[in-house]
Specification:
Number of domains of chain A: 2
Oligomer: homodimer
CATH architecture of the largest domain in chain A: Alpha-Beta Complex
Strand content of chain A: over 45%
Shape of chain A: elongated
CATH class of the largest domain in chain A: Alpha Beta
Structural class of chain A: alpha+beta
Mean pLDDT of chain A: 91
CATH topology of the largest domain in chain A: Nucleoside Triphosphate Pyrophosphohydrolase
Number of helices of chain A: 3
Order of helices and strands of chain A: EEEEEEEHEEEEHH
Radius of gyration of chain A: 19 Å
Distance between the termini of chain A: 38 Å
Number of strands of chain A: 11
Chain lengths: ~180, ~180
Amino acid sequence: MQKNWKIIRSVAKESLRLFEAKYNYLINPRNEKEVEVIVLSGNDAVNVMAVTTKNTVIMIKQYRFGINDYTVEIPGGLVDAGEDLLIAAQRELREETGYSGENWQYLGKIAQNPVFQDAYIHHYLLIDAEKTHPTEFDEAEDIQMIEMTLNEVQEGLYECAFQHPHTVSALVLGMRKLD
Amino acid sequence: MQKNWKIIRSVAKESLRLFEAKYNYLINPRNEKEVEVIVLSGNDAVNVMAVTTKNTVIMIKQYRFGINDYTVEIPGGLVDAGEDLLIAAQRELREETGYSGENWQYLGKIAQNPVFQDAYIHHYLLIDAEKTHPTEFDEAEDIQMIEMTLNEVQEGLYECAFQHPHTVSALVLGMRKLD
C-alpha cells in the first residue's frame, strides 16, 4: 500500500505570465527522502466540443507559440478568476468562433499536466451550436475556424491531427456522448 | 488565409528543473502587434501502452506533484539527451515496471502542450510484454503497478479515470491499433 505524500514547505518563485511558479518540498514516503518539485500554479481552463445544427464540429486553427506551428483544436481558454465554468466555456466559444447555443453538457475534467501543473481543464459538449455573434480575438490570437464532420473528427483522433492533448481528451468524451 | 508568425527575438530566462524558460517575441500577422510569450523548452518524452501475454495493460499509480494527488497512467518519462526514442521507451517501461518485450510499434506523437511547451511526447505500443527485470525507481518516484483489462482501459477513457492527458492520447491510439 502506498503511503501519503505531504507537502512540508512551499516557496513562491515568480510569475511566468500564465502561472505562478513555486517549489514544493515533500518527503517521499517510500524512502523518507526530501524531494524538491516545481509546480506551476494557474487558473483552470475550459474547452468546448461544439456540434452545429448541420452536425459539423467547430474546430479552430491557430498558431501556437510553444511549438511554433499551427494546431487544429476545439475552442477554449482560461477561466477568469471567480468565473463560472459554464459561463467561461460559453464566453470562449463565442469570442473565438461567434457560436452559441442552449444545449450544454459537462463531459468531465482532466489535469492539465499532473506532473507540474495544479490546474484542470473542464470539457463541455454543445449540441445545436449556431453562429450568433461576431468573433472577438485577443491581441495575441489569430484564429481560423474550420468545420469537420464527426467522421473526420474520429479519423483525426486516430491520425494525431489534433496536436493539443486537451482537445484529444475532450473529443474522446464528446464522441462517446454522441454515440 | 493565415499569414506566418515569425519569432523576432528569444530571451533565455532561467532553468525550472524540468525545462528552460524563455520569452519569445513575435509579430501577430493579423494586427502587426508585438506579442511576448513564455515558452518552456525541454526534452521530448515517451510513454508506452504495454499489453501483457495475458492481454492486460500495465498501468502505474503514482503520486503527482502538480495536482498533489495520485494518478493512474501508462509508464513513461523524459528522453535523455541523445537517446533514441524507442530505447527511452524500453528503458522507462523497464525501470518503472520491470516489463520488457520484442513487439514494439510507434503509435505517433503529440505536443506536450503546444501553448507554452516546445516538446513532444511519443507514444509506443508493446505487445506480449513480460516481467523480466526488477524495477528501478528514481529517488522522487513511488510507483505501484496495476494491470487492467482492455475493457477496463476503454471504460476508463470514458470515465476520466486517467488524469494525465498524454496517457489518454496514447491509449486512444493504442486501443485503435489493437482493434
